[in-house]
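Students often ask why inverse folding is considered easier than folding. One informal answer: many sequences map to the same fold, so there is more than one right answer. In these notes we will look at a single instance of the problem. The structure comes first.
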């Protein structure tokens, strides 16, 4: 429980640029990070050495998910403008976030292919 108190105290001092409603964080940082993460997880999914890959995928997934959730604060504001390019950018961001989560699930859950 002490860890949660420290994390909560640290969260109070984190700057909140993601609360801006212009979509810049999503477009400039969020989508490229998730695109690179998708490519990395797709490559990791193709590698056979399972234990090392699962550990590496977990180490890469945690910061990617945290940054994705942080960027989602900005991406949610883009979904208000249905039918515009902002809506498409927000939708692409959340699609990439879901794809990264699915690829991570497949890597961690995957059966060993060495029989």
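Output (designed amino acids):
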């Amino acid at each position: 429980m002490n860890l949660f108190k420290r994390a909560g105290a640290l969260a109070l001092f984190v700057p909140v640029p993601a609360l801006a409603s212009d979509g810049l964080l999503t477009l400039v940082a969020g989508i490229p990070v998730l695109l690179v993460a998708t490519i990395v997880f797709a490559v990791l999914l193709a590698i056979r050495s399972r234990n090392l890959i699962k550990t590496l995928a977990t180490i890469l997934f945690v910061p990617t998910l945290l940054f994705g959730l942080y960027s989602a604060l900005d991406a949610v504001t883009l979904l208000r403008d249905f039918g515009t390019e902002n809506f498409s950018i927000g939708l692409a961001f959340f699609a990439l976030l879901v794809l990264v989560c699915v690829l991570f699930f497949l890597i961690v859950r995957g059966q060993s292919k060495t029989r």
